[in-house]
Every structure is written in structure tokens, then in C-alpha cells.
Design brief:
With 472 residues, the chain is of the alpha/beta class. The chain has 20 helices and 17 strands. Helix 5 links the parallel strand 3 and strand 4.
């Protein structure tokens, strides 16, 4: 009989998640997906434990020791593509030691369930949103006919006499307000800390206000995971969670980690108005598309405590944006950056180097152009073709350039693909390092950061960030 459930964020060294110079400043945030499932399981009467191996800095053996101490009846592990191999090894050690059922979930298992279940130590996969299906699956395992009952559950994969079975895809959760808040009480939330440029005040918590994204950028797996269906929580439900985090844990800042935040201008207006009227002392940041904001909306957000917006811009080359189906015009990007700055909100631009049709020449032109735009922060990732995306399928078919499949390196920081214009992987990697230094190691930029600092915490954050960039 299953009574005690352990949910695990498996070992994943910071030195491998990020390039080495950013190891000490990389984000470590609670796994909201696991914490949502933890709440659902607790609501169903199960005893739930949570182990964050990344936060603790555990390797596989240390994490295994903690698992053995807890001695669960079943274990759930979330994993991403670059950590799948290590997670599978971890599960094998657990299986050899305890012999308990092991369930995998997260982006990689959701998109490639058969590959994940091909590992002997992995018994079940939960695909997509797992709050309902995980509870149903464990209830089924506690029944008199577990195989029969499990086969009736949507959105899972399992093995039946060695044969891998994938059940019918589950429907999307229609009302996110019906889902319990994440089980924050299972983690030491004050120990988590984002990258220096992602917060102003501590302690910080992460939240989501929506699930899914209606757009179809070819490099992104969200459209595959959520089938381009965007579902939004009510304003009152989000405010309730904010107040809970503030009163119960003393949270002073929120990072909204939605795939895309604020698509409904009416929702944003209502949300910002209530934050102001109820005098909730929370600063916050979010991720938006540059073509979904307006001047009025940005001023409302600033008044309500928003201090930074993360824009996923990817490129400033029209042909490249067209190749990845970004669906945005350059003029809109420039206008939104300027309007955001005018509203008093800092701008973080995310760019991807090595996209289809890019050459070293137009990459350098783009970087030099970026340096003329009033970004407060930028990030240069290298193209990461995640399995399950349109772009991954294109690259494996030989389109756009040279691709070497290596899931361990799909971290946004390691080169696995170069478009036809580049001569080698090394050339693209050097471009990433050059671009980052070109933006940050500028007298004008350094001076702007110095005069923007208001607190000792600001000084500490900027020193950490500068050391990371200088170490590239």
C-alpha cells in the first residue's frame, strides 16, 4: 500500500547547467510543477516529502542517501532533457536499493515518454499537467486491480509485461483556480535565490499566473506541451497566493515564470489596480512578448510594483525571425523597449545566437546594434534544439546547418548546432562569449549600473554579475 510519496528534483550540477563562469550566480528556484503535484497528493491524503538535490548541491550518492532515509513507498522525479541521462542513473540506483515504483515527469518525459520508459528502472511517466493524473495513478496502484485501473488514466505511460503503453492524452486543466497553491511549506523558500539581475529584494518566490502560449515559435516546446492553448488564473486567485506568500513566508518579491505573461490587457489592468488598492508591498518581474504590451499597460505595471520585464526577442534580424516563426516586427521590438524604459521599468532582452540563416557577420552587426538600445540586461544563449520542437525535427532532417545530437549539452550554453554561415561549433561558442562581453564590458554600461545602485544589495548583485561576465 502506497502512503508515503517522495518528490525529487534530481542532482544537476550548476557547473553543467550553466557555463562555468556563471556557476556561482545561476538561478536555483523551487520546482513549481512538483510543488503543485505535492499539494494535490496531500489533498488526497498522502504523506508527501520533497527533496531538492540541486538546492542542496547533492550528487547522486548523497541524494540516494536522503531517499533511503525518507524511505518512501513511491518516488516521483522531474527532469529536463540535458539531465535525463543522470536522472536515469539516479533512478537505477534507487530501484536497485529500494525496489519501489519510480515515476518520471517534466518537459522531457512529457514529450518523449517512450524513450524515458525504455529505461528498466522507470515504471511510469506522467505527461503534461500532473495534478490529477498523478493522484489517479497512485490511487490505481493502491487498488485491487492496478494494471486495469492504470490503463484507464489519461496522460500517462507505463509498462505491461515489458510492453510500453501510452494512454490517451489528457485534456488541459480548464480552471486553474481549482488547483491548490504549490506546497511551499515543503521547501525552505528563503534559501532559493535567482541570478543577481533577476531580483531586487529578498526573499523571492516564483509564481505562475497562466499555462501555455498561443504562439508557435519553432524552437519552443510550450506549443507542443500545451497545444497552443493559453489558460489564465483569475486575478483574485493570484492575489490570494501573493498575500499568502507575503504573510506566511515574508516574501517581498515575485518572479512570474509564465511562458508568456499578461496577454489579456483587461486582466493586467485589474491585477495592477488591486495590487495598488490593497497596498500589497510586493515588487515583481515577468516575461512578455514585445508585441503584447502598450504604453498604458506598462505604466499600470510600474505603478503596481513591476520593476523589470524579460522580453524573449531572440534576434534583431527579420529573416531569422521569419525562419523561427517568431511573428514579430522589428519596429515593434524597438517601440516596446523604449516604452518600457519610459514607464520606469528595466528591460531584459533575451537573444539566441546560432539561429537558422545567421552568419558571424550579421551576428556581430546585431550585437553592435543591441549595444545602442537601452537594455538594462541582455542574455545571449546559443540555439538549443529541444526534442519535440519543430526546429529539432528540422535540424535532424538536415535543414539549416550542422547538428550533432547530444542531449547532455542541451542547456542553452553548449553548442550542438551551427547554421551554414559558421565554420565550426567553436566559432559560435566564441561569438557567445564575445557578445556577452561586448555588451557588459563597456564604460557607458558600467557607469549606468553604478548610478542606478541604491542599496548595498544592489552593489552585491552587480559585483557578482560583473565577476561572472569577466570570467567568460
Amino acid at each position: 500500500m502506497i502512503k508515503k510519496v517522495l518528490l525529487v528534483n534530481p542532482p544537476f550540477p550548476m557547473s553543467e547547467r550553466y557555463c562555468k563562469s556563471f556557476e556561482s550566480v545561476g538561478t536555483i528556484a523551487p520546482k513549481l510543477g512538483l510543488l503543485y503535484i505535492a499539494s494535490a497528493l496531500e489533498g488526497a491524503g498522502y504523506e508527501v516529502h520533497f527533496l531538492d538535490s540541486v538546492l542542496e548541491g547533492y550528487d547522486i550518492d548523497k541524494a540516494l542517501n536522503e531517499v533511503v532515509k525518507i524511505s518512501p513507498d513511491i518516488i516521483g522525479i522531474t527532469t529536463e532533457t540535458p539531465n535525463m541521462r543522470r536522472s536515469a542513473l539516479f533512478s537505477k540506483k534507487i530501484k536497485d536499493f529500494l525496489g519501489i515504483p519510480i515515476v518520471f515527469g517534466g518537459p522531457h518525459p512529457s514529450l518523449l515518454p517512450k524513450e524515458v520508459l525504455s529505461h528498466d528502472s522507470i515504471d511510469y511517466v506522467v505527461m503534461g499537467e500532473g495534478e490529477v493524473s498523478t493522484v489517479e495513478m497512485i490511487n490505481a496502484l493502491n487498488s485491487d486491480s492496478p494494471v486495469e485501473q492504470v490503463s484507464k488514466i489519461q496522460g500517462i505511460g507505463y509498462k505491461n509485461n515489458g510492453e510500453i503503453v501510452i494512454t490517451e492524452q489528457s485534456g488541459r486543466t480548464r480552471n486553474l483556480d481549482n488547483i491548490e497553491f504549490p506546497a511551499y511549506h515543503l521547501v525552505e523558500i528563503n534559501r532559493y535565490k535567482p541570478t543577481p539581475h533577476q531580483y531586487r529584494r529578498l526573499p523571492v518566490a516564483s509564481m505562475i499566473t497562466s499555462r501555455g502560449c498561443p504562439f508557435s515559435c519553432t524552437f519552443c516546446s510550450s506549443s507542443e506541451m500545451f497545444k497552443r492553448k493559453y489558460i489564465l488564473r483569475s486575478v483574485d486567485n493570484v492575489i490570494e497566493e501573493l498575500v499568502y506568500l507575503e504573510e506566511r513566508f515574508g516574501i517581498k518579491e515575485i518572479n512570474f515564470w509564465d511562458d508568456i505573461w499578461g496577454l489579456s490587457k483587461h486582466w493586467v489592468e485589474d491585477f495592477c489596480d488591486k495590487l495598488v488598492k490593497e497596498k500589497i508591498d510586493i515588487t515583481w518581474s515577468c516575461s512578455c512578448r514585445a508585441d503584447t504590451v502598450s504604453e498604458k499597460m506598462l505604466h499600470q505595471m510600474a505603478k503596481a510594483g513591476c520593476w523589470k520585464i524579460f522580453y524573449g526577442l531572440e534576434s534583431l534580424d527579420s529573416d531569422i525571425l521569419k525562419a523561427i516563426n517568431k511573428g514579430i516586427k522589428l519596429e515593434r521590438i524597438y517601440d516596446s523597449v523604449n516604452l518600457t524604459k519610459k514607464a520606469g521599468i528595466e528591460v531584459h532582452g533575451n537573444f539566441i545566437l546560432g539561429l537558422p540563416t545567421e552568419t558571424p557577420e550579421n551576428a556581430k552587426r546585431m550585437v553592435n546594434n543591441i549595444c545602442k538600445i537601452p537594455f538594462d540586461y541582455v542574455k545571449f544563449n546559443v540555439l538549443t534544439p529541444f526534442p519535440g520542437t519543430v526546429l529539432h525535427r528540422e535540424l535532424t532532417e538536415g535543414k539549416w546547418g550542422v547538428y550533432e545530437e547530444n542531449q547532455d549539452k542541451l542547456t542553452l550554453h553548449h553548442v550542438t548546432f551551427t547554421p551554414h554561415g559558421y565554420s565550426s561549433f567553436d566559432e559560435l561558442d566564441k561569438m557567445r562569449r564575445w557578445a556577452t562581453k561586448q555588451f557588459y564590458i563597456r564604460p557607458q554600461y558600467i557607469f549606468s549600473r553604478i548610478i542606478s545602485m541604491r542599496t548595498i544589495e544592489d552593489l552585491k548583485r552587480n559585483i557578482k554579475g560583473f565577476k561572472a561576465v569577466a570570467g567568460l
